[in-house]
What does this fold into?
Amino acid sequence: MTGTTVAATDAASGLPAVPLQDTVLLPERIGELTGLDGFGLGGELLATFLAAFLIGNLMLAMTGVAGPWAKRKITAAFTDRIAVNRLGPAGLFIIVADSVRLLSKELIIPENADRPAYDLAPIVVAASALLGFAVIPMGSGLHLADPEVGLAYVFAVSGIASLGLVMAGYASANKYSLLGGLRAVAQNIAYEIPLVITGMSVVIFAGTLQMGEIVAAQHETLVEIAGISIPTWYAFVNPFAFVLFLIANFAEVGRNPFDTPEAPTEIVAGYQTEYSSVHFVLIYLGEFLHIFLGGAIIATIFLGGPAGPGPAALGIVWFIIKIWGVFFATQWLRSAVPRVRIDQLIEIGWKGLLVLSFANLILTAVIVGLIA
Amino acid sequence: MSTGLERQPAVEVTEDELEAIVGDRALARDNHLNAPGFVIRPDDVQDVLKDLRDEAGFDHLANLTAQEYPDRYESIYHLRKYADPTQEVSVVVPTTTDEPVSQTAEPVFRTADWHEREAFDLVGIDYEGHPDPRRILLPETWQGHPLSRDYDQEKPQLVTLTEHANPIQPDHHDDESDTMFLNIGPHHPATHGVLHIETVLDGETVVDVDPDIGYLHRCEEQMCQQGTYRHQIMPYPDRWDYVSAGLLNEWAYARVAEDLADIDVPEYAQVIRTMGAELSRIASHMLALATFALDVYGDFTAIFQYGMRDREVVQDILEDLTGQRLMFNYFRLGGVAWDLPEPREEFIEKTRDFLDGLPAKVDEYNDLLTANEIFQIRTHDTGILEPEVAKQYGCTGPVARGSGIDYDLRRDDPYGYYENLEWDVVTKDGCDNYSRVLVRMQEVEESAKIIEQCLDLLEDWPEDERTVQSNVPRTLKPDADTEIYRAVEGAKGELGIYIRADGTDKPGRFKIRSPCFHNLSALPEMAEGEYIPDMIASLGSLDIVLGEVDR
Amino acid sequence: MIGILKSMATTMKHALDGSTFTVEYPETAPDVSPRFRGVHKFSQERCIWCRQCENVCPNDTIQIVTNDQRQGEQYNLHIGQCIYCRLCEEVCPVDAILLTENFEFTADTKHDFVYNKEQLKAVPWYKDIDPLAAREPDRDAWVGEGEGEVDYQ
It folds into this structure.
């Protein structure tokens, strides 16, 4: 479980490159700090659990802020309103109030619900997003694992969510949920392929699937403009792929303009219709976790991960800023863009994005082949 | 911005020609205050109506009233022409009290379908040959017919569900087919009120749509029959189309009662009425746009909030003028309740500010709605309503004008101060959701033009001629057995009222012709064969208000 | 794509200009116009017990009880059932009942909303606005006044 190699010396300035990626992964660091690494395999496992606990809590805390508070504040800004501002400083205690309220609601389970699937679906939706965070390099040493197939792992794991959605849709014994679940799985399948293929074009640039290496490969300077060195973030190198990936990502997480699976004005709440209390909280948070996971993937493979001005220890801050940027973009689209119809959505996915992403891949391969 | 459609000049049909067309099927003449009436036999209904439609050109079944007298039941078919609504004819069909059966008019006018169901439901007349003789406003389990004379309010009105179909029982209509039956509403975020739509789906395609209304039935007609003409009925029309079109509804009642009792309205009051009505129309169209955006864009959309914000300004102006933001009770028979608020300049200034800010807001809506490509692909070529079909269903208002039918009662059957002002009727040829949205947005601009001109007139009106109400006796008792039907251009279409006076100070029969009722009955035509999202968008573009559909 | 970007730019403009259309109620009390129709206020000194308000009320909200000498004993008005149409104020010949702009009233049960004449007298003015002052020039628009035929039914 050793870490990756460090990036080379900065070519332009001659200064030693600031290592973005610690050679030490988080479990090892925790093991060192707590002295658990002296206990052999058991100690290592415990340290890994603690590290996963830390990262999971960090992500859940972010979704906790995003869901009840940030979404309302952002929507209010777009609609000329004052949103939550009573409870606590700037209304932040609404998070506590909302959590208590949601968890204290009655757990209503429809009579004909398919019980194991009905209960497991929210867990699948939430857990698949949390699993994806394991390999994301978040800077400041918060990197849980760095397998060599990191990117493929992330795509695979976040795809499990469609299974959760269809389980929720079918097991609820409700026609609205069924329609929502079917739409969700059709949408996810249609947009998974352009997403992965556009991700592959990044892999061609970086030459590796390992997340830490991809981040390190974006550290070099692309060009110097007015004294500010623009790093080789793949968003600047290939903005076309960046836009394609963004669109496919919005479709994957089910956000405007592609939020047909939970279209509130058509099928009430889609696959979420029959869920209340804890199940609903899991699905709701799971949706935000997926948005953040999508943001984390975009940040890692297109925006240089935790890169940013300042010392390496601030990496997590820049990373969080980038994730929140993607979240903010989803809220912005939600306020301004209508949703497409399901058949138009499938058309855009299979005819539009698929062709464009293949073209992007071939073009990237040709360019990299020519340069190398 | 009228289209290039030529308005077909309507052929003037004289009363002698009408008599010739109806011929000897007319048993008697029963003239209403505004239309020649012909009494015919119950089994001649289809022939007479067909002749009137094909030979004389009366293609708009405006209203079907059913009522019970001590010795008979009566169905009154009131026909008009889309090309010239000032030409009207009434066809009166009496039936016996012990067996009230009358021939259905549905093969001639599709809109008679729902009207006859309502007549059966409330009054008790059976229509022979009707394709779907179910109750429409009251639940299936209701006993009796409330508007008939022998209705006993003390007896139980509903039977228990054990004797009737259980609504939450899963029912498999047809186990062989692979269609799915889905109940949309009454609890649903997108139905504009409590509306229950029974849809049959084949995948995502809508195969069959059957709206089930009546959840908001508040017996408005009966309540108006229990109030005096002079004062007590006037608060009620506000509550039919309650989304800020209150003044237009009140004008419908004011117009019909003033024509019935032959009351004049001073010119100053007409100008104020026109201005207030157009402000109401703007507010109503803003809400229609905002809720349509909700249907297409999903929740948390900014357009809904911007629409509400703009509407708030109109409501503030109307609050200054009338005293309330939604239920105005401002018109009185013979004029309006009071003049512009003091100081006049401030009020006129405030309204002018609103009008000045309106083009910028309309531009904003254009940026957000009509210029948006995804909105265009969602609303183009969806919810198609052909003009001939629309005429068959009696659609009026922006729904009809979005299909190219050039019908606007403010111009064709003038009232108020409209004929002295410069404005255009907006029609579009698209017949789809997009053109209806465009019609509403442009009508807002036309209303702004009218209000601007009214403000100029009100500002310069000489001070001693500002009469807001003519002298009307405190009790109005129109002569017995006078009947009249009058309509105005409400926000949703032709809002008409039929009143039969029986010599007392309360109406004998008060029938409301609701435009949303007719527009909603055209939903199956618009939605079948398309997808669910298109049906929701079509429902939004019809802009129904359940208070008016169910009354 | 351009249309979508324009839509997004429009909403972003609203987000960035920082102004809100909503206010923080109840700290900022809204301005109501002087003609706003709120809770009624009744003055027994002025009332002549003519029962015009009771007759004209569209949904029988006012109940008046008099003794055999036609002296008023009770004047009950259900402010929860009232539709605030203002017809009672309009027909009252002596301005005994009028509608203040007050809209902030609460009760624990619906039955507490039946105000008798003491409670109606105690209704406060909203922000000390006397509604009659706003409507004074129009009081002569009261129905029935003038040279026309009047029917004292």
